[in-house]
Amino acid sequence: MKLTVTFLSTLAATVVTTAIARPYVAEPIVDGANFGVFARQEAVASNETFVPPTITSPASRSLQPDFPIHESCNKSQRMQLERGLFDLKRLLRGAADHILLHGNQSEVYQTYFGEGSDPSVPLGIYLRVLESDKSATLFRCDDPDRNCETQPTYNGHWRGNNATGETVICPLSFQTRLPIEKACANGFSLIHDNVNVYWATDLLHRAMHLPTMTNDHVGHTADEYPALLELARNNVTESVKNQHSLQDFAFEAFVRANIDEQGCPADRHHEDHDHEHEHDDHDHDHDHDASPTSTISATSTSASATAAAQDCHTHADGTVHCV
Ligand SMILES: *[C@@H]1O[C@H](CO)[C@@H](O)[C@H](O)[C@H]1NC(C)=O
Ligand SMILES: *[C@@H]1O[C@H](CO)[C@@H](O)[C@H](O)[C@H]1NC(C)=O
Ligand SMILES: *[C@@H]1O[C@H](CO)[C@@H](O)[C@H](O)[C@H]1NC(C)=O
Ligand SMILES: *[C@@H]1O[C@H](CO)[C@@H](O)[C@H](O)[C@H]1NC(C)=O
Ligand SMILES: *[C@@H]1O[C@H](CO)[C@@H](O)[C@H](O)[C@H]1NC(C)=O
């Protein structure tokens, strides 16, 4: 029990100080079994401090942790994409740390994934996108399948069977996507707005389409916010691998840790309701700010007919999915 407490406080302290690096190296618990593993030939002075050996594996030497960016992205696009991928790392690290600290017991966790679900599933998905080998993936800015050109609502797309490791980012993304520190700005609300307006969550979605990240285990059982909450209540085995639930949990965990402890202010007054959101009837005007800098308003549900609002991609079987 004491060991658990020590471990958790070490973890908590390290999580606070290292936002992106691996969160902790657990102090080894020196017991009889470990002495067997780490037995050394030389004599050991009785006052010598145990220093754990550095453990390397073939994987830790060969994996490429960052997504490659294709030469078709010009310097400006590359910088924006690098910045967005950095946001993605922050998002994933925060989501993983939240689950490492709270398991399936936090309010945010239970909102999106349900009370009785296995936290290893979302944790594994976040860590896999964060740390798995990216060498067989590619983000590109040209338009090899001509989806950007022919479909003005496309912010980007997975190339599906044409190139399963590749993702195209369309020019529209560079006009609409926001940095993660703008989370909640301009009245953004998870209930009303499309979380894909942020680079971090949009790139999480795109990463989850790559077979090497998720093996197609992540799906689209529910997309709309009320449907996500219902899924968490009714089918926890589906909620933990539902794409939009994974995005929204990660976003809200980030917001609560870094922006506002209670989540985006625009979502707050909904908490009194019993989650029966008839959100389409809600008297909530997101289009009030028509200034060109307000990309949020262009992505609200009420403006879903506008170009930036929809987020479409093609699945391996050719079906197009827009959210
Ligand atoms: C351990 O003990 C030896 C002699 O008994 C002494 O020379 C050495 O400085 C000690 N090391 C530490 C870390 O206290
Ligand atoms: C980069 O490419 C985009 C899309 O083609 C273009 O709009 C932009 O002007 C380019 N930037 C530079 C600095 O060349
Ligand atoms: C999830 O939560 C339930 C209680 O709600 C608990 O019994 C269960 O052990 C938890 N599962 C895991 C994998 O931690
Ligand atoms: C793959 O390429 C074909 C032929 O160019 C194109 O019709 C199709 O839309 C592409 N698929 C995707 C997912 O873009
Ligand atoms: C959850 O959804 C899956 C897939 O639709 C289904 O097979 C399963 O029976 C559902 N579980 C419950 C408890 O409804």
From TrEMBL:
Residues 264-302 are annotated as: Disordered. SUPFAM superfamilies: Metalloproteases ('zincins'), catalytic domain. Residues 45-264 form the Putative peptidase domain. Residues 266-290 have a biased composition (Basic and acidic residues). Residues 291-302 have a biased composition (Low complexity). GO terms for cellular component: cell surface; extracellular region; fungal-type cell wall. GO terms for molecular function: integrin binding; metallopeptidase activity; zinc ion binding. The keyword S-adenosyl-L-methionine does not apply. It holds the Pfam family HRXXH. Transmembrane segments: none annotated. Keywords: Signal. Residues 1-21 form the signal peptide. PANTHER family: PROTEIN ZPS1. This is Zincin. It comes from Ceraceosorus guamensis.
